[in-house]
């Protein structure tokens, strides 16, 4: 199964993609995670990309095409993939279509994770990662016990550099202007499925997998 997950930052694409990956054994390909790995590795490219990412802007289409074409050529993507965070511009969508045409492996579906703006803001401004376990938490939605467990174990609740409020506003704006037009792009191609992505992780997952049938 080859699918693209579309949705604003904070719509839960990553969380849902990871669940689907675990269940169906197809890789989640998150361009955001790949870029963060390059930043953490301190490569020259990573150093350049960090400034763009910290501002909430998009890395150039050329670079993204290079990254995604290499990744899709890896053996584990042969049986399918869940693209999470790519494509994000019309040019990237066209590049992806060309790449998949060449490989003769068309997309099966594009799933839009649909969430209200207010909820997105809370999900993003509240998002934290426990420095000890890597567990994703949220100061608005996680239980007190979950948050305390990290801290009493000696961990810290870390916030991503691009989850600060002004950067979040820019990321949502970039989504609206550059990525949202892809909803129509894929609707016209008969690939779009929309999932109400408000609610618990399990409820959204149930809707997500139903949409894929
Ligand atoms: P994400 O974790 O998907 O929210 O991505 C974090 C950041 O990585 C984005 O705000 C962009 O700066 C960059 N990024 C990730 N995917 C792409 C993409 N497909 N095109 C351009 N920039 C991207």
Can you characterise this structure?
- By secondary structure, the protein is of the alpha/beta class.
- The protein has a domain at 2-27 and 74-115 and 172-211: P-loop containing nucleotide triphosphate hydrolases (Rossmann fold), CATH 3.40.50.
- The protein has helices spanning 13-24, 31-41, 44-54, 61-72, 90-103, 117-125, 144-152, 165-179, 181-188, 201-211, and strands at 2-7, 28-30, 81-84, 109-114, 127-130, 136-138, 157-158, 192-196.
- Strands 2-3-1-4-8 form a five-stranded parallel sheet, with helices on both faces. Strands 6-5-7 form a three-stranded antiparallel sheet.
- The chain starts with a strand and ends with a helix.
- It binds adenosine monophosphate.
- Adenosine monophosphate (AMP) is lined by residues 9, 31-32, 35, 52-53, 56-59, 64, 85-86, 88, 92, 162, 171.
Structure in a nutshell:
The protein has about 210 residues and is of the alpha/beta class. Helix content is about 55%, strand content about 15%. It contains 10 helices and 8 strands.
Summarize the biggest pleated sheet. 5 strands, parallel
Could you give the distance between the termini?
11 Å
CATH superfamily of the domain at 2-27 and 74-115 and 172-211: P-loop containing nucleotide triphosphate hydrolases
What letter string, H or E per element, gives the SSE order?
EHEHHHEHEHEEHEHHEH
The assigned CATH architecture of the domain at 2-27 and 74-115 and 172-211 is: 3-Layer(aba) Sandwich
Per CATH, the class of the domain at 2-27 and 74-115 and 172-211 reads Alpha Beta
Helix content: 40-55%
The total of beta strands comes to 8
Model regions low in confidence, pLDDT < 50 over at least 5 residues: none
The share of residues in extended strands comes to 15-25%
**What is the SS-derived class?**
alpha/beta
Strand order of the largest sheet: 2-3-1-4-8
Total helical segments: 10
Distinct small molecules: adenosine monophosphate
Mean pLDDT: 94
Within the CATH hierarchy, at the fold level, what is the topology of the domain at 2-27 and 74-115 and 172-211?
Rossmann fold
Radius of gyration: 17 Å
Principal-axes shape call:
globular
């Amino acid at each position: 199964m080859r699918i693209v997950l579309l949705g604003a930052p904070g719509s839960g694409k990553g969380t849902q993609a990871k669940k689907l990956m675990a269940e169906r054994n197809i890789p989640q390909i998150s361009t955001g995670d790949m870029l963060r790995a390059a930043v953490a590795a301190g490569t020259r490219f990573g150093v350049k990309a960090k400034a763009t990412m910290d501002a909430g802007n998009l890395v150039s289409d050329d670079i993204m095409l290079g990254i995604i074409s290499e990744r899709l050529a890896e053996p584990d993507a042969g049986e399918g993939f869940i693209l999470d965070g790519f494509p994000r511009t019309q040019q990237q969508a066209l590049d992806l279509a060309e790449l998949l045409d060449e490989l003769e492996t068309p997309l099966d579906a594009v799933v839009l994770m649909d969430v209200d703006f207010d909820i997105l803001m809370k999900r993003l401004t509240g998002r934290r990662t426990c420095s000890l376990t890597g567990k994703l938490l949220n100061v608005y939605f996680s239980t007190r016990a979950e948050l305390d467990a990290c801290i009493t174990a000696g961990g810290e609740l870390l916030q991503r550099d691009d989850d600060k409020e002004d950067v979040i506003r820019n990321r949502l704006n970039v989504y609206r202007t550059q990525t949202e037009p892809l909803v129509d792009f894929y609707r016209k191609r008969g690939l779009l499925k929309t999932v109400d992505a408000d609610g618990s992780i399990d409820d959204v997952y149930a809707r997500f997998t139903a949409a894929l049938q």
